[in-house]
Amino acid sequence: MKHIMLDLETMGNGSNAAIVAIGAVEFNLPGRVREHWQAKPGEFYQKVDLESSVKAGMQIDTSTLLWWLKQSDEARKSTFEGDTVSLTVALRNFARWVDQIDNGGLGANCAIWGNGATFDNVIIRSAFKAVGLPVPWSFRNDKCYRTVANLLPKERQPVFERSGTSHNALDDAVTQALHLQKVYKELGL
After folding, report:
1. For the stretch 30-52, what's the b/e string if a residue is b when 16 or more beta carbons lie within 10 angstroms of its beta carbon?
2. What does pTM read for this prediction?
3. In the chain, how many domains are there?
4. pLDDT of residue 40
């Protein structure tokens, strides 16, 4: 089984939140994700035009907008400045990337990990539906990083070491994948 950690930056926290960035990294359990911060074939990062997310029916909520205003300049710049693509293009690109990781297996051999049972995976599935594209992996392969990480009591939790910019979708995906590898090791898996 191939493993992909997904992280989204959104403008809401509901199942239909408007997506502004998609980040993902391929990783092994246990194993290495990457050693330095450069895009590699096993990474995906795409900034999404907010207006296209809203036009597709995804929603912005005020509390998330206010939350973004309180984040670091670096986080806001990495998410909102620079080139973007439409939600449809971003999701097509992501689907192609997943297919490359899966070697044409139509997502049957890819576990897609998100942070929270009701967040990343649910939102991106809603986005695929909103733009009329099929989800490129089986619902059976949706995995929850937060659930596994919380299997350990606090005193056995490995140190959560942040890498890169907090609230940059790719940096968050890498950070979560590295932490999940440590959790698996501590669990003896």
Report:
1. eeebbeeeeeeebbbbbbbbbeb
2. 0.93
3. 1
4. 54
